[in-house]
Amino acid sequence: MIKAWRLAWLPFVLAAGPAHAHSPIPGIKGFYTGLLHPFSTPSQVLLTIGLGLLAGGFATETERYRLVVFPISGIVGLVVAPDIAELDAAMFAAAFAACALAALVPGRLHVLAVVLVAAGGFLIGVASIPDDGPVRDRLFTMSGSIVGASIGLLYLAGISLAIRERYTWPWVGIAFRVLSAWLGAISLLMFSLGLAAGET
Amino acid sequence: MPNRATLTLMAIALAYFSATFPALAHTGEGYGGGFVAGFTHPILGWDHVAAMVAVGLWGAFLGAPAIWILPVVFPLVMAFGAVAGIIGIPVPAIETGIALSAVVLGLMIVFALKPPIWMSAVIVGAFAIFHGYAHGTELPATVNPFAYAVGFVISTGLLHLAGIAFGLLIRWPAGRVAVRGAGGLIAFAGIAFLSGVA
């Protein structure tokens, strides 16, 4: 009986509608928008997941601290703001590289992995540049984007690490490699579709 | 007389169903339609099914690490084949290559051949090009390409897993016979595809 009542919250959660709450801090809405921005397009989602799977193979504490290159390169991307004509294609290519590395040689080629994490952060930073508007609003949005992308990457890498450490069966590592291969294949397909669309 | 736990669960279920929103069904376009089109593309083509399952079966015969390396290599190389198809790089004899993949992989299983792992990966990868090319060129113009790509990669992977799951029977003598028999069926189907009978 007690166990059954534990599910009583379920319909309320599933039936939840929009909250319509307002933000108490002026401009903070842009921050929230920025938080979700890194998960708003397939290219950014695939890149973030690919980097998360790659970073999940970082075995030691020292290696994990090197994830700090991600937000730093993201900020560099926001500040430098280069005009990359095929930004989505570049992100898909980076996602493919990250996924292929995670699938074929997980936990190895550490320098290359850190370079890919930095490149991914840079590209997401470039993709997070908001449209023209008041400087304060843009700063809020850009801050939210970098925070959102970094949290996303940390959670993905952390979940991956936690699963590997909690469940030490050989097939767990293999499952991550197969997942990485699948995501790499999808990224490569999207990369080519982007290029094909650009040619026509 | 149902007990209180059952009544409670029924009450919760009733509350849940009472709170549902409209489904807003679509016409098969967009993300949903794209996923379904991509997911069903490898499954509805028997030549694809035979070869994908064969990859898993053969991996089971080869044992670790090949049993897992082949399903990792296949989708990555298959994507390169799809790229060639999408951007229009000509690859000859696609259908022949797909049919041959069933014949060759089926025979590998029948004779329980165990070449070195790199050679197995090269064989599987070479055939993956043909399968990927077919998927890439047959991508419907009306569906969402991202959802299509997600669908057909997952579908291909699940066919591999089905083959691996069946291939695990080789640890028993009768299962070994069954798996080798399945390899024979796949090779036979491949010959039928090659000759145009199927």
TrEMBL record, chain A:
Keywords: Membrane, Signal, Transmembrane, Transmembrane helix
Pfam families attached to this UniProt entry: HupE_UreJ
The keyword Transmembrane helix is assigned to this record: yes
Membrane-spanning parts: 37-58, 65-81, 87-104, 111-130, 142-163, 175-197
Signal peptide: 1-21
Protein name: HupE/UreJ family protein
TrEMBL record, chain B:
Xref: InterPro entries: HupE_UreJ
Signal sequence segment: 1-25
Keyword Transmembrane: yes
Pfam families listed in its UniProt record: HupE_UreJ (PF04955)
Transmembrane regions listed in the UniProt entry: 43-61, 68-87, 93-112, 117-134, 146-170, 177-197
The entry's keywords: Membrane, Signal, Transmembrane, Transmembrane helix
Name of this protein: HupE/UreJ family protein
